[in-house]
Structure formats: structure tokens, C-alpha cells
Amino acid sequence: MESYLTPDHYDLVTPDGAITKIKGLDKRRKLATIAIVDISAAFVGYDLDPKSVTFNLKSTLAQLGINARCLSYAYDRPHGRAEAQIELFAFGHIGEAMLDLITEGAYIGKLFAADERRKVRDPDYLTRLFGRADRKGRPLLSLGNLEGSGELILEKQQGRTVAFLSVRDGVMSYDTTVYGFLPTLAKALKKNMPHTRQLLHLHQRFESKIPRIMRENEILLVRTAPLHIRTVYARVVDDLLPQGFHHTSANVLQPDTYASGDIYEFYGNSNQVLDDVPLEFFTLEPHREHVFFSDRDQLIAALEDPKTLFNAFATAPGSKKDLAAVFVVKGTQMKELQGKDWIMREPLRYDFPGLASPSRQALVAEKYIEHQPSYPFLKAIEEGLITSQGILLSRHFPTPLLKRMLLNDHVERCLKRVYFQYPSCSHDGFFSHEDRAFLVDLSKFGIPVYWVDEISNQILQYVHKPENDSGLFVPLPLVDTFRKATIFGVYGSNLQEGNFEEELKELLSGVLAMRHEMNHPLLCKNTPLALVTGGGPGAMEVGNRVAKAVGVLSCANIVDFRSKEKSVVNEQRQNPHIEAKMTYRLDRLVERQAEFYLDFPIFLPGGIGMDFEYTLEEVRRKTGATPPNPALLFGDPDYWRRKVTSRFQLNRETGTIKGSEWVSNCFYCIQKASQGLAIYRSFFQGTLPIGKEGPIYLEGFKTHS
Asked: Does residue 448 contact residue 483 with C-beta atoms inside 8 Å?
């Protein structure tokens, strides 16, 4: 897969070939053997009918009056080599002089694979490029200027798109100084030096009064507006030229043509005036087409089908623990993925010395980054080898150490989505603190991230709640619901469900109905609701089950409570009623709790974890991190007195909560859903005495009568 991510590779052409043997046939003809080396394994011509592979002469030679005809060629595919027999012809005195100077060692041209499957069929493929530029501001396709030109006429003929380039009045001719340039050019050909065509232009002049008529044994040079090509190969269509006209074998314009594709070389015999030059087009490799993601209708449609994504990840080589990634730019590529298309790496351990040794830390970090399977794709985007916008499929969520690359300007413009299957190679389904911070950064830079989740068998999108700087992975149809939702939450024991399910169901159903009566920022007719739990069994499962049953988005912040050595924490299975989620490693338990960000907490009886959650909600209100919204305590008032009252009263007596006693008016003990609905109704109507100006309840909460 990495072979095509090299700067010198296009799969429809070989490198230039050099002459190994040459002999004269007469003053106008020579027979040359050329050797082509370092041919990419991906060269399309290997597998085409030989009639579809042509020899493309250097245009510098063609403009001087040289033409070439390929007599035969043969591949040495295992070694990436080819040998071709080429007959060279000279037209005119300049051509004859140049032919005489061509000797062994000169690089004179390459093979071009005219793959019928890659022909541009629909003119829309090209017209969508008008007015668009690459990242250096160069037009992707135009004749004359950025916006394209009325001189570029596109038609569909014989099942292909043909562009007709209007030819300007007059012809190109040469100053006599060109003869002095020819020996220098002959030496430059042996070095395979680029840009010789620009030097040749110094010896050319445009004569606007001479008619564009083809005379036998001469070369006719005509001029069009400057052509810019960055996204396709173009080839002159000989059979659409006027009778008697033929273009030289320098008839292919490469996708690095800008402002120089304006001179065309013809030979033959005709009295007809040439008015335009017909070109047909061949597409590049998909990753080099400069295609925008929004133009990839088939890819976008494929991404809307979860089965397609799960099937795509199933093609990744290796095991679940192996690192693997692939960059996808079109729908057919997505549906036809194979193991060989992925880049795979074995997971290796790296010893990071830390900031105590910053130089070594930087070196190890760089090695770690380069070992990631996503690295070659991101590097290719940075270097301009991948120009089409696309998506990254990565078996594991990309390491945050790739942040510098993923948020690079070039990558950020090219990478439209990230899909992964597992949050971590070493911690399975649980994200690290750095991962979650990275998710926030990707969201802020407009790079959507999707979890192809085997547990829910759904595609989950990371949705950022900007006001909280956190987010959850949410099923695609529910993304907008989560963004707009008012968040309720259930805290309670993971060991006991309790007997509050029916009351909780009635409570949430009542709040849903209440939306149509209220006009509060947190509750009105257009306000969706979400409910968050810890995602485990017991009271948490009750909360998620009820939420899903009544049509409230069911969410969870899930901690890795799998058994650890010397652990006294009960291992908690994830309950099956979760729709949206975020996961945490155990060392970030406190941070996870801080990221519930509930608008309206609901407490069911629980143990030490619930005690911590209760205290955190008190602290949130005391510090102003959360507005003084009501929290409901379901259960026997005596239970909550034993939980809360003694602590509240001791703190009050010792003066350690002086000025914060009012927090007690945010907590309401209820036994029935109707009581909770009455509290909510009063709050949303602005009549509930709550907050700093409200009363102090000596039990630490108010018992609803």
C-alpha cells in the first residue's frame, strides 16, 4: 500500500527511459533501444493489452521536429524494468540537426498506459473543477485563467469526454539561435534535466500572420491559451483531427501541467486550417484527483450504511491487537477494500523517558509516531502526494501523539472524517484522558470522528458539548438530539435496582409532556431530553432502561471496572440499554464523574460512589460550576437523613460551610413521581425558592410534603 505514496509515482506512466543503443537508418531516421528502470509495481500498463500502451516522447524534442514510433517493448516486471524499440523521425532542418545529436544515454520519453477504464466519460467530472485551485492557488483545470475559459469546449463523443481547445491565429517558429541551443539540450537529455521546454521557449517566436496549414515533411507548431491540468492526464485525439493532420507522439499532457500546455506539434499534409485541438482525459489514482469529499456521492452514501463500514473494517489484516489504517477517497474503493490496501503495524512498546530527558523523549515520540499505520497517509497529505479529500479508517483510535499531523492545515483540509473500531489497543474499549482531549480538539477543528461500535452494532459519532468541553459518542440519527438536549441523570447503587422504576418512568414521561407548557431555556416544546448514568447494572440499568422506554436519549459515562489485582470494586458489566456513551479508564474515575454535567440529577439509594456523586453535586452548586437547579432524592426521608443530615448539620455547627448553607435548598426528597413533577413545574415557572436567596433546610434537603 505504501508504494504509491512516493513523489515520483503515477500509475499510468513509467519513469523516463534512456537510450542504450542507437543507430542511424538515414539522415531523417534512427533506431533506438531504450531502457526504463524503477517502474512502480502499481504501473497499470503491466496488465493492459500491449496496444493500449504507447510511447510518449518528450515534448521538447517534438517541438524541435522529432517524432517517435514504438516498434515493440517488453517488461521485466519482477525487477521493475522495460525495454523498448523506438524509431525516431525528423521533420525539417532543425529536427534533422537535433536527431543527429541524440546519442546513447539520452532520456527521450516514457510509456503511457491508456487504460479504457480510466477514461473520463462524463463532462461534469471536469466542469466541477473550474474555479477550483490546489493548495498553492494553481487552477485544477482551466484554459487561460482560474475560472476556465469559453475557449475550452467539452463534449461527450463516443462514450468519452473530449475538450476542444481553440487554436490562436498564427504559428510558432524559431530564431536561428536555436541551433546553438541544440548541443546544450543534448547534454541536458543525458542528465534527464527538467524544464528544458522552458529554455526552448527562449528561442521561439509567435508569428500571427502565418496560416495554420500542414505541409509535408514539416512540423507545424500551433498555440492555444495556456492549459492548466492538475487532476487528469490529457491526450490529443488523433482521429478527431482534420484529415491529413497527425500529432506527434508527445501527445500526453501530465497532471503537473500549468501555464505551459499551450504548444502542440503536428505533421502530415493538408490544406485545411486547424481550428482546435481535441483532447481526451484519463483519471489519476483516486487519491490524487483533487476531488472534494462533497463530490463523492457514492462514498457519502456508503458511509450512511453501517454494514458497509463494518464490512470495510473486516478486511483489515491481522488481529484485533494489530495496528491498521487506510485512507479512502471514493465509494468503489470503500466497497472493494482488501487486506493489501491497508497499512499494518505490530503493536510495539516504547520506553518514553519523559521530560527529565526532553531530547530523548522527542526522539522516542517521533519513532512512535512514524510507527503508526496512519502516519504514511498523513505524511503523504502533508507533502501533496494525496490531494483528494477522504476519510481515515483506523482499527484503533489514533494516538494523540498524531495531533500535530492531524491538525496540520493541509491534513485538516483533506481529512474529512475519522472512523475507528476500538478506542485503544492496550485498553480495549476505554479512552485515556489524552484521547478525550484529542477528541475535543478534532471536533473544534471540524474533523468528525466515528466509532464503528461492535457492542451496539451501530456507527456512533463523537458529539461535543461546547459549553462543557466534553462529549459523547452518539448514534447518527440522535446526534442533533444530544446537541440540543437538557440532561437528566440517575445516580445510585450498582448492586441494587430498587423499586423506583415505575416512578422514574412516570417522572420522565411527565417531563416530556411538560415541555409543551413551558418556555424555559432548559425546557420548552423543542427541547429534547437525555439521561446519563454510569452505564453499569443496578440503579444505572434502571435509569437507562426507563430512558430508552419513554423516548429519552439513553447515555452513559462508563468506567473500566474490570477486575484489577487487589481491587475491591465489583466488576461492572455494561447494561444493554445504552445508546450514547463515553468511556474512561479507572485512573480517571474522578474526572469521569466531573464530566457528567447534569442539568437535573436524580439520586436513588446507593453506596460510596453515590455519596461521592452527591457531594460533587453539592460542590458544583456551591462554586457556581452548575446553576442551582433542583436535584431529586428518591426514597424514604429517613434514609436520606442518615445519609445527609448529620454531615450537613456538623458542617453548619462548625462553621465550615458558612455562606453556603443555602445549597440545601437544591435537594428535594420525594417518594412519588408526582412530587418530582411538582418541583420541576415550580422551577420552570420561576416560583421555586432555590439558590443563594432561598431558604436553608436544616436537614440538608427539603422533604416534599
From this structure: no
CB 320 within 8 A of CB 422: yes
* Residue 17 and residue 41 share a domain: yes
One domain for residues 353 and 496: no
| Residues 532, 399 share a domain | no
pLDDT digit string, tens, across residues 23-43: 999 989 999 999 999 998 889
Summarize pLDDT for 110-128 with one digit per residue, the tens: 999 999 999 999 998 888 8
Residue 596 falls within a domain, yes or no?
Answer: yes
Domain match, 350 and 267 both: no
First to last CA, the chain: 71
Residues forming a β-bridge with 672: none
- Strand ranges (DSSP E) for 560-599? 580-584
pLDDT value, residue 149: 57
Report the domain count for the chain. 4
Whether 497 and 634 have beta carbons less than 8 Å apart is answered as no
DSSP 8-state assignment for residue 116: G
Same domain, 160 and 100: no
Within 289-432, residue ranges assigned H as helices are 297-303, 306-314, 331-335, 358-371, 375-382, 403-406, 409-414
Same domain, yes or no: 554 and 503: yes
pLDDT in tens, 369-395: 999 999 999 999 998 889 999 999 999
Could you write out the three-class secondary structure of 477-515? HHHHHHHHCEEEEEECCCCCCCCCHHHHHHHHHHHHHHC
Which residues partner with 224 through β-bridges? 167
Residues whose CB falls within 8 Å of the CB of residue 42, separated by 6 or more in sequence, listed in order? 3, 4, 9, 11
Name the nearest CA neighbour of 228 among 125, 334, 148, 310: 148
pTM: 0.86
Please tell me what DSSP assigns to residue 121.
-
Distances (CA, A) of 274 to 66, 169, 223, 428: 20, 10, 11, 68
Which residue is listed with cell 486547424? 274
What are the angstrom distances between the C-alpha of 627 and each of 350, 439, 508, 666, 698? 45, 26, 21, 10, 21
> What is the span of the domain harbouring residue 571?
479-705
The helices-and-strands tally (H runs, E runs) of the chain is 21, 35
* Pairing of the two strands 529-533 and 486-491: parallel
586's grid cell: 479507572
- Taken in order 179, 185, 187, 190, the sign of the CA dihedral is negative
Residue 322 has pLDDT above 90, yes or no: yes
Predicted local distance difference test score (pLDDT) of residue 632: 97
Same-domain status, 494 and 374: no
Which of these, 672, 662, 683, 682, lies nearest to 705 by C-alpha position? Answer: 672
10 Å CB burial of residue 562 (0-12, 13-18, 19+) is: middle
Note whether 305 and 418 are same-domain residues.
yes
In a domain, 318, yes or no: yes
For residue 611, give the CATH number of its domain: 3.40.50.450
Q: What is the pLDDT of residues 225-236, one digit of tens each?
A: 888 888 899 999
